[in-house]
């Protein structure tokens, strides 16, 4: 299936904590690489989540090859996936070396704690440094000689509540730097972040608070002129019961005698307590599914493409990431 986002070079993945945005970012990188693309996946929160996800050593401040992409359905050789852990201190030192030729002098500043001081008292500068490195990966320039040219960059971004502030670097710097190279760089980055080459995808689960935060995030992104991508509904429960059985379970009208007979038919010894317990679990499951359906309806009213990823019983490992990548590709996200 063709991608819903053929023009996008920068895929920003955000979401409320606990919704699995790092899993989605990692899987999206593998999905994009299935089209023969070379992909860079970046993280900026200092948690080394990508290293744990791909079961590799903690990532340095260097683009590191970590995987081969999912093989495409057409048999085309997959691309590669590199990862980058971005920290503001290293990004500032690289910025000083690249634009001001402060090689040893920059390292001396680091030893004196100037870098930490600057990024602590001016959070806006910190975000410019983090997003600046992402921008540079998307639009390689002549100062970074020999750097890999990527077809797509995936950013495992801060949570939904901070994503507009994080990406809207030009406004964040307004009170700090009205002129100068950093302000100029921020303005240049905004031309990418507000363009069709960027898409901000939001990850949610079918629960009230994450869905509401997703709706609020979409409204805030649009108000800031930032391009909204799709909504990825993660950790969707499998449909274990037919709709008719689900309705009976939710109403407390499940035929317990039929349940007992089915169990004994396959060799399971039953007791009244076992059958009553199963009926209670079925009712809880039905109530949970009803809540999820109400939240799914709200997601579908948000007016953006939606994608669903099932909850995987075995947890997340490399095999699971490739399975999720295949689902994303089949649904048109990757």
Work out the strand percent: 5-15%
The overall strand count is 8
Which fold does the CATH topology refer to? Rossmann fold
What is the CATH first-level class name? Alpha Beta
Output mean pLDDT: 86
Largest sheet: 8 strands, mixed
What portion of residues is helical?
Answer: 40-55%
Shape: elongated
| Annotation field: number of helices | 14
Poorly predicted regions are none
Q: How many domains make up the coordinates?
A: 1
Rg (C-alpha, Å): 24 Å
Q: Name the CATH homologous superfamily.
A: P-loop containing nucleotide triphosphate hydrolases
What would you call the structural class?
A: alpha/beta
- Order of adjacent strands in the largest pleated sheet: 3-4-2-5-1-6-7-8
Termini, distance in Å?
9 Å
Order of helices and strands: EHEHEEHHHHEHHHEHEHHHEH
Task: Explain what you see.
The protein is an alpha/beta fold. It has a single domain (10-240, 305-331), classed as Rossmann fold. The protein contains 14 helices and eight strands. The protein has helices spanning 21-33, 49-54, 88-100, 103-111, 114-121, 123-138, 160-167, 169-172, 181-193, 208-223, 243-250, 256-265, 272-300, 318-331, and strands spanning 10-15, 39-43, 64-68, 80-85, 152-156, 198-204, 228-236, 306-310. The protein has an eight-stranded mixed beta sheet with strand order 3-4-2-5-1-6-7-8, sandwiched between helices. It is elongated, with a radius of gyration of 24 Å. The N and C termini lie close together (9 Å). The mean pLDDT is 86.
């Amino acid at each position: 299936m063709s991608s819903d986002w053929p023009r996008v070079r920068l895929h920003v993945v955000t979401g409320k904590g606990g919704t699995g945005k790092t899993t989605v970012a990692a899987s999206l990188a593998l999905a994009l690489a299935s089209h023969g693309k070379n992909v860079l996946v970046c993280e900026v929160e200092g948690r080394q989540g990508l290293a744990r996800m791909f079961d590799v050593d903690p990532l340095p401040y260097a683009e590191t090859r970590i995987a081969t992409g999912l093989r495409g359905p057409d048999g085309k050789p997959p691309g590669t996936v590199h990862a980058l852990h971005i920290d503001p201190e290293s990004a500032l030192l690289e910025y000083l070396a690249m634009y001001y030729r402060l090689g040893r002098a920059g390292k001396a500043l680091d030893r004196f704690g100037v870098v930490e001081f600057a990024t602590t008292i001016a959070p806006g500068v910190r975000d410019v440094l983090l997003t600046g490195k992402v921008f540079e990966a998307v639009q390689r320039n002549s100062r970074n000689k020999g750097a890999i040219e990527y077809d797509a960059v995936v950013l495992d971004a801060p949570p939904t509540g901070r994503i507009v502030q994080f990406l809207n670097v030009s406004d964040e710097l307004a009170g700090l730097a009205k002129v100068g190279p950093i302000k100029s760089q921020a303005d240049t980055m905004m031309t990418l972040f507000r363009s069709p080459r960027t898409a901000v995808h939001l990850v949610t689960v079918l629960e009230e608070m994450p869905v509401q935060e997703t709706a609020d995030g979409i409204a805030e992104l649009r108000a800031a002129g930032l391009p909204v991508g799709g909504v990825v509904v993660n950790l969707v429960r499998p449909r274990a019961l037919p709709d008719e059985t689900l309705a009976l379970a939710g109403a407390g009208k499940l035929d317990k005698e039929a349940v007992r007979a089915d169990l004994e038919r396959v060799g399971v010894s039953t007791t009244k307590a076992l059958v009553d317990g199963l009926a209670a679990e079925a009712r809880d499951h039905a109530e949970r599914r009803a809540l999820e359906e109400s939240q799914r309806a709200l997601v579908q009213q948000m007016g953006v493409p939606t994608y669903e990823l099932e909850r995987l019983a075995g947890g997340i490992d490399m095999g699971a990431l490739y399975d999720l990548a295949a689902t994303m590709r089949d649904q048109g996200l990757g």
